[in-house]
Amino acid sequence: DEYILQEFGSEPITGVEHHLKETRAGGHVEHMEVMRDFVEAYNASDIYMVSDLPKSMRRDVTFLPCLRCGGFLNFLDTANIWMGRGSSKSVIHYDDQDNINCMFSGQKRFVFMHPSYKEQFEAHPNTKQNRFGWVDTDLDSSIPGYGAFMKVDVDRMDLIQHPGWKDVSWSFVDLFPGDCVYVPYQWYHQVTAVPVRSINVHVWYWRPEYFDTQSCQQKDQIEPSFADCSWGYEPPDLKGYNGHVGVFPSRAVSGSEKQRLTKCKKAKGGKGAKAGKRSDL
């Protein structure tokens, strides 16, 4: 924490939520403008940071080799930092993008359920007919929270109220500092942190429509940091695509789509890089 305060204390942050046990209805904590505000408060309160990774921190994080070629760097969405004093628990949900999530401090367990359950999980949303507790706030604005998720107690699953769960198969992985996990889009998952400080960083990106093998044969492969890349790609609305993949310009409907691709340049290095502390993600 001392290092974070010294090097990044004045960096803006974009989101701090109430409740370590996520409900999606806790709302955002007021007066959390910069990293220092959070670091000086989180150990004595029930708050949790989910924020865009600050720009100066991005200089110290590089991409895992599996993302450096193949076209992935053309379809970057966002990079987030997650930080709490431990014991955080997420709701059960899925993401629309592919996700690589890496632990820098602490330990978390990721529990996964296959997307083949989608039809069962999401049938009759927002009603008692749903056997899993699936709610979608886009379909009913009176439901507290945001997005779509399982409105269940992840610590005490009520099989009388949600009997479908007794037949669900699941898998899990425990992440320690230096570990990363790949979370494919639309895989249902839930994340729990052990009761020690946790810091993890993830990158959301759109899977390329095909693997660009030619980009992996270049001799001068770049190893960019997060700060060396543009972000914010959104898939175009094209016939025959499901909106979950990145589309190369040859498939775009207009020249404007080419401008939407994200790009990376050669790394300049950051504070940690000068001291040999850069981390791959």
Number of strands: 15
- Helix and strand string, N-terminal first? HEHEHEEEEHEEEEEEEEHHE
Unreliably modeled segments:
272-276
Strand line-up of the largest beta sheet: 1-2-4-12-5-10
Query: End-to-end distance, in Å?
Result: 21 Å
Which percent range describes the beta-strand content?
Answer: 15-25%
Dominant shape: globular
Q: What would you report as the Rg, rounded to the nearest angstrom?
A: 20 Å
Structural class, by secondary structure, is alpha+beta
Give the count of helical stretches. Answer: 6
Query: What fraction, in percent, of the residue positions are helical?
Result: 10-25%
| Sheet having the most strands | 6 strands, antiparallel
**Average pLDDT reading:** 91
Describe this protein's structure.
The chain is an alpha+beta fold. The strands form 5 sheets. It has a 6-stranded antiparallel sheet, with no helix packed on it. The longest helix is centred in the N-terminal third of the chain and has 7 residues. It is globular and about 60 Å long. Helix content is 11%, strand content 25%. The chain is built from 6 helices and 15 strands.
